Input
Amino acid sequence: MILFGRKDKHIGTREIPNEICVECGKKGGVVSVFQIFFHIALIPVIPISRKIASQCYSCRVVKVEKQFSIKQREVSVLLKKEFKTPLWTLIGASIIFILLLYKLILKWV
Ligand SMILES: [Zn+2]
Output
């Protein structure tokens, strides 16, 4: 079992039906957002970043943000606005914060 590390989770997708693939020349694909977070024992602690990638429906080729077309770039901007960093990525940080606060309070009582 992995005790801690980086993990990513898919948080949103937008379809681009008219996007023409540069690899196979066929129409249709998706742009997806992934949240990358740091976890301890699979409990998300701190959000690190969001990653955007696109995939062609026909040949399944995956492109990263740097290789995006103008249309894909537009969609990725919308996706980033629509899918903010989810709050669950802060569960671990909140637990640690509450524990520290609890310890502090115990010291004073
Ligand atoms: Zn393709």
Q: What stands out?
A: Helices lie at 70-82, 91-108.
